[in-house]
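Hi,

I'm pasting everything inline rather than attaching a file, because the server keeps stripping attachments. The sequence lines come first, and each chain or strand is labelled.
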Amino acid sequence: MMTTAAPRTMPGLSRTARHRIRVAAITLVVLAAWEVLGRFGLVAGGALPAPSAILEAWWADWEEYPRHILATVGTAAAGFAIGNGVAIVIAIATQLVPAIDRLIRPLVVVLFCLPVVVAAPILGIAFDDPWPKIALAVLLVFFPTLIATQVGLRGAPGDAVSVVRSAGGGALRALFLVRLRAAVPEILSGLQISAPAAVLGAILGEFIGGRWGLGIYLVGSISSGNPAIIWAIGLTATALSAILYGVLGLVRLWYGSTEKLLTLDLPSTRRVAGSALRKALERVGWLIAGLAVLIGAWYAFIASTGLPVTLMNSPTEVFNTLVTSDRAPELRAELGEAFLSSLSPAVIGSAAGILFAFVLATLFATFPSIGASAMPFAFISQTVPLVALAPLIALAFGRGPATVVAVTVSVTFFPSLVTIMQGLAGAPSGPLDVLRSVNAGRFAVLSKVVVPNAVPHLLASVRLAVPRALTGVLIAEQLITGTGLGGLLSQARGYLDYRLMWAIAVVVAVFSLIVYGLAQLAEDGVLKRRR
Amino acid sequence: MSPLFPRPARRAAVALIVVGTIGSLAACSSSSDDAAAETDGLTPLTLQSSWINDAEFMGYYIAQDNGLYEDEGIDLTYLPGGPSVIPESSLLAGDADIAITSPDTTISAIADQDAPFVIIAAQYQQNPLGVVSLASSGIDGPEDLVGKTVAVPDVNRLAFDAMLTINDIDPSSVTVVPYSYDPTPLVKGEVDASLDFVTNVPFTISEMGETASSFTLYDAGYKIPNDTIVVTKDALENNREAIAAFLKATVAGWEENFVDTDAYPTKFENSWFEGTGRSIDNELFFNKAQQPLIESADGMFAMTDDTIQDTIDSLALVGITATPDMFDTSFFE
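And the predicted assembly:
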């Protein structure tokens, strides 16, 4: 398929040079196609602007940008630094003391899956400017890096770890001599996932108010009804995160060329001695402890803000709302109905999201040129707030269930994509060389070595994608269809019904925890069988 | 700041929270500008606006730039709003002393959740919210909306449903979809109408080469004001003088604005309106169009007994019980 873009043989050119030419050619073809679609108004009755029109709009307003960019970059950078710093420290702590992992996991999953539309106003009143914005960026950044770092730390070469330990080195020494160094590629891929998340978090944070920032600029420009201007702002955000992503990619390349990993063995699953019953009991015990931490943190947060219960509902309040209050039966019925209508797009969306990420990642691994040229476009879905794209999506795809699924995929696929790509790239070089020496085809290499090696990453990517599926559905429903839980959330906002907003947040949290737990169970099962 | 929630205690407490995950972040939140205590004998007041800077808030900008608040002994901090800002929440949180709100939302919160708010003034005596459509669509009144698709912002869902109910239209006979103030779906015909300020979006629609037609919710019988000025009961008791001074200066700012609606939007091009993503022409249109909705024979910002009764009657039709004690008209007596 690439022969259309560049001749198969290009004598006299190095491998990298040929790759670069292909990437440039594919990118140009895509841009040309976009230009035609935009110029002739072929998509959504002209709501998709041509790249040249976007550039024109950007150029016409360029004086407006520096101050907004500076504000957004400041917030994003703070969120990126704090979120990733805390994530890496916690990942190291959980490697040394696995109990910490089990204790904080429910809390961490819930924080990651909290719908921004619920979290933003709460953060806005709980902290003083600029911390609500930074906090939002931290929330989006933190979890993927935590998971990536943990995968990396566990995936350290077992031989090297045992060498250090048999020489009398403790867990701490093994950690710093072997594990951390071995985990650098995964940590870097975690940071790469964070790059667009930090920018998006900053922009969504700016919706909490303020004077400067691309988010503020976007809100004002949306009412101008000029898609080129909206895209110019959105693509500026995309460019900011792409630059950060690219720099991290260079660091990864540089690190990859200096550090030769021996082999990459499989992450060791926790070995629990004893009967199946005891293991099950232990699981339940940890779950209860984790939930206790989650609920304790919730109470502590509410108490620490000193805000009235009208605004900040504690678990007790939510229990009252849903169980003992006069409106409880009516509310439960409403919530139940909304949840059921959001459930199927969430299930379909998360399955489709992972499949999409896997197909893309294998495609990218097989045809690196396509991967390199497609990545910038994948970024658009990660950094441009959906509120800016909602009218275009509605015009192009309507306001039905298919649109909700598509948006859910776009919200969830990216962390999975990067994680799986990291797994595919980490294939051990020994078997690869063997296969290449017998002239095995791309797909043979892929199916015999690359994909099996990436299974742990694939499983981790499921844990990243699935819990956020309902959040993705909520965003789509709130901005495009007005149905289901998202629609109910909008209604709660309109009636200033804080109790209903909290109840919806709890429904999302419970769903996220359950599917995360299922994904974890499946992961443990698969990894155990592979041992 | 609101004595209900002493800020130092809150800050110190906030610093302790969110164990582990965002802990380092919380610690930093305790360090911002608390030193804004009374300087020059001025009383500090914070106003939480409901939206980003545009002509909707001209009077407040003028009163600040022209020193009208200082003249009344007020040091005003103006907080712009945004899509994720719930102005009433800022009052509850003690982040603001005064908020600009949608009265139906505020009243719903007082009535259904015992929120301690009082409405003390109304910027728009007549609500500029209306149903905006393309002139070619032939939507001239509520009855034309049956079977149509209308884009409605979250915060105005209640108002829209109320307007339909008042006109004996079953809200379920109209398809409502979310709206984020982008007129594109309307101009492209993907929706039949949008609920937006009739003072604002028709300008953009004409820029896009179409002609807009509109009717306000007010004219359709949903007679409530908009951009109501709200304080907490506690502030009303303990901060009365400062609030009165704020209202006086604000009204003076709006009076100055309406001497010539063309004067100030241009003046603010490089200050209040710099980099908002909106054109000055749009603000000029907005400012002119809003004049008749703000000015009133009874005096700007004043709520008459009729205004209050109309509001109570309108909301009663959608099952929200407003009572006269939710309003305080004493500042304009």
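Confidence is low (pLDDT under 50) at residues 1-38 of chain B.

If the labels don't parse on your end, tell me and I'll reformat.
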